[in-house]
Write a structure and sequence with these properties.
alpha+beta; homotetramer; two-stranded antiparallel ribbon; Thiol Ester Dehydrase, Chain A; about 35% strand; 7 strands; about 140 residues; five-stranded antiparallel beta sheet
């Protein structure tokens, strides 16, 4: 697996994001990963907001998470994100999450596709994206 | 206070909605109240979905919650909802939440207004609403 | 795949669970699946709450969701849930979600394990569970 | 109103935190305010996590939010937080939220109390807190 260009996003676990066990509830990882993806784009010089305002959206096709250890309240997480392969219609984002002690908490993948907001039709990766990312 | 026509909505507390203390996190009450309001409308023969599809929205102007006791995981809550006074541009929803033991957990009020989705301009209560609710 | 005993849980999509695209945000499916699992257990005569109060928890080992169509606000979802194979230390829950028009929205799997709350050590499936489920 | 020592916390609005109207859903403000409170404490040299690990919790007694303008996706919010008056058993946190254009989005207050985790009994403000905050 070519990890390509890895971007690392840092996020602090909120109180409300933990459940009775004291763990980050598994539903919330999708929020962290989405935030990491947004910041990866911003670091490339594009914002998801502008892209959406221009009529493009990125629905999720599939997501998969493997949990090694639990995240906990107030953890300062480092989320590594990279794109696997060359995206065309679909784009596969890969994630690895570490806590402040360098322990691997989980790995994940999320397959998304580019689509027109107007009719939800999938389209090839927009040139603005491929240029900024250097595909 | 005229409790007018009280509608009671039942909702089961989800695991993810409770925090490390084992209590319903205070952010989640807004979700239950919104669900209660939706079902109150449905019982009147209107759906919020149809209203929104027709170009009307109901943003929140203010919300206030007083907590007496905590809600807990798997609680089967009874939420009483009623409209206070005669709504014109604003509509005040009142709430009382009880658990399965009949204990009062909280009281709340939420002031909302009717607005056009196109320009977010406040409007008087739509006739479809006032008719169905009998104002 | 032996679908074994399929339990169907119905859930109404909340307004707050939908994103700007008008779709159920992908993070929220984990909430619906968790609710379905809880109700499946209740139908068998056990509650997750009692199990947890007795010192047992069920952390998630992995989760995977494949999206076919988006869920939307006010959709009345039917979630089919069943257990694949014979659970021992791990238990694999399978899910299929349909909307009110019978359209398949997604399929999912979630691998969980039984553990003692006190030390988070995995344990074999508790006899109370295997008896109630008839494994 | 004595604004006392105002702490400003910055938070970026997540995609999942916005609803179909494109606004921050009103339930999510409690998450931002909680994060602001946590960071205000950290700036004082205490963490809520340590406090809780030491057996103290801070349940919410009441919350109230007045909305002036909607928050939107990708907004970079500045949340001002300060404590009103001298806390004893209860502590009143005040909030003002501005967006990146300096527009006031909302004001809020949240009354919390200090309690022992073991029996949920309210207690006077812990000396560690009053010392660090300089009450």
């Amino acid at each position: 697996m070519d990890k390509g260009s890895v971007y690392t996003h840092t996020v602090r676990v909120r109180y409300a994001e933990c459940d009775k066990m004291g763990f980050v509830h598994h539903s919330n990882w999708a929020l962290y990963f989405e935030e990491a993806r947004t910041e990866q784009m911003r670091a490339k010089g594009i914002t998801y907001k502008d892209m959406e305002d221009d009529g493009l959206i990125m629905p999720v096709k599939s997501m998969s998470i493997d949990f090694k250890r639990a995240g906990r309240y107030d953890d300062l997480l480092s989320i590594e994100i990279w794109i696997e392969g060359i995206p065309e219609i679909r784009c596969t984002f890969m994630y690895k999450t570490y806590n402040q002690n360098g322990e691997l908490l989980n790995t994940a993948s999320m397959v998304m596709f580019y689509a027109r907001k107007s009719d939800l039709r999938p389209i090839k990766i927009p040139s603005i994206i491929s240029e900024k990312y250097g595909f």
